[in-house]
Amino acid sequence: MNLKHSKQRDSIKEFLEGRKDHPTADMVYMNVRKTFPNISLGTVYRNLTLLADIGEIARIRVGDGVDHFDATTTPHYHFICKECGSVSDFDVPDMISFDEIASADFKGQLEGHTVYFYGKCENCCKTVLSS
After folding, report:
1. Which pLDDT score, from 0 to 100, does residue 128 have?
2. Positive/negative CA dihedral, 92, 97, 102, 107
3. How many CB atoms are closer than 10 A to CB 78?
4. How many H helices and E strands in the chain?
5. Is pLDDT above 80 for 16?
6. Helix pair angle (25-32, 41-53), 10° resolution
7. What three-state secondary structure class fits 123?
8. pLDDT value, residue 60
9. What b/e string do you get for 14-32 counting C-beta neighbours within 10 Å, with b at 16 or more?
10. Are 123 and 84 in contact (CB under 8 A)?
11. Using an 8 Å Cβ cutoff, are 79 and 90 in contact?
C-alpha cells in the first residue's frame, strides 16, 4: 500500500515501538500530543486503525471494551492482569510446537491462534503483599 508520508503516523508508530504494555488509543493520544499538540483523538484513532489494517501494528482485543495496540506483529502471547487491566507480552517457549500439536488431528489448515493468559501482574502482587 502506497501511503502519503505522515509525521503524526510516524510519531504514533515510534511511540508503540519497543513498548511491552500495549497502550490504548487514549494513551497513544496523550503521548503523541506532547509532540503534536493540535493532533485530534480522531486522527490518532484513524492512524491506529490504518496501521493495524495494513499489518504494521497489531490491534489486541482482550474483552475490556477498548483496543490495545502492539508494534510487535510477529506471533506472541499476552498476559492480562485481572486486577489493574494491564496487557503485556508473555513469553512462552516452543510456540511453534503448540501449533503443530493443535493441527495434528485437524483436517483443515490452521493459520494461527490467540491465547491470553490471565492473573495478577507483578505490580499488583507487590501491592497485595505490601498492604
Report:
1. 65
2. positive
3. 20
4. 5, 5
5. yes
6. 120
7. helix
8. 93
9. ebbeebeebbbbebbbebb
10. yes
11. yes
